[in-house]
TrEMBL record:
PANTHER family: FE(3+) DICITRATE TRANSPORT SYSTEM PERMEASE PROTEIN FECC-RELATED (PTHR30472:SF1), FERRIC ENTEROBACTIN TRANSPORT SYSTEM PERMEASE PROTEIN (PTHR30472)
UniProt entry tagged with the keyword Zinc-finger: no
Primary location recorded for the protein, binned into one broad class: membrane
Bilayer disposition of the protein: Multi-pass membrane protein
Pfam families cross-referenced by the UniProt entry: FecCD (PF01032)
Presence of the UniProt keyword Cell membrane in the record: yes
Gene name of this polypeptide: fepD_1
Record key words, sorted: Cell membrane, Membrane, Transmembrane, Transmembrane helix, Transport
Protein's recorded name: Ferric enterobactin transport system permease protein FepD
Amino acid sequence: MTDTIAALRRAPTTQVGARRRVAVLIFGLIAVVCSIVISLSFGSRGVSVEQVVEGIGAWFTGQTPTDIGALAVQSRIPRTVLALLAGAALALSGALMQAITRNPLADPGILGVNTGAALAVVIGIAFLGVSSALGYLGLALVGAFITAFFVYFVGSVGAGGTTPIKLALAGAATTAALSSLVAAILLPRQAVMDEFRYWQIGNVGRADWETMAVIVPVLVIGTIVALLCATGLNGLALGDDVATGLGVHVGRIRVIAAIAGVTLCAAVTSIAGPIGFVGLMVPHAVRQVAGPDQRWLLPLSAIGGAVLLTLADTIGRVLGSPGEVEAGIITAFLGAPVLIAIARRTRLKAM
């Protein structure tokens, strides 16, 4: 038993040393702090360092500042917190999906999970009159799980079983079909369109503490479950037969990790809309610098996703001032070249 656990902890083999990983972790934590400061400082109104300090201090003490810059800082705190949570959850979800499918193109957006959650929310708004955060969360979970199961089933049919390309094609086709259904439901319903318009693009600008209180417990549970699966996912990277030989319950690990990944994605989508490419870009970037060991890859991906989405939201506010460009548009602009670069790699099947 001791030898088996040690083998799983070593798997997969990597040349990346512990010092390098610790350095990446420290750099990531510093980047989180910097992204928070940048998010609070920049937007349609620029603020000084003193106003940032005053706004944060007044928020901690429950006071309302008189300075307009400090007020702007306070108004940015909820969306900054949501950007951190959503980015971390999406990146963690993408890392889980890439690990359990051994598919470098796996991402909640590419596999259609985001769109499935969005369709369920649209149906709830249009036909069931759902308007609460809890209702959105429940519908998003149902839509995300149904879509994930469907895409995996379609990607597994035929000769050769499940392959990265088949899963990506199944996800792309499903996303296109579900997007058409969303449009068909929205077009003749102006009121639903107005409710859904900003949410559809993917943004964190409508964040508030009451809504976040609904999804935070779900995100915490999903994150804990994901991190507990790290050692088992290391075994899966060696192949099902080797993992089984090492004592890993392959099917159980896949199901638990998939539930955690889909839940994280659905919870974020229910409050921020479908934000794509975070789950694709961040795990790949982290894997390049910290190696494929899931015990490091998962937490570092969460940190990287938090930084990426927070900065994307800030860039959108600066570029669109006095309005804003939604964070989902910024991440899509950044993610499309990354997707093309990954798809061109000749070692796609070797992951």
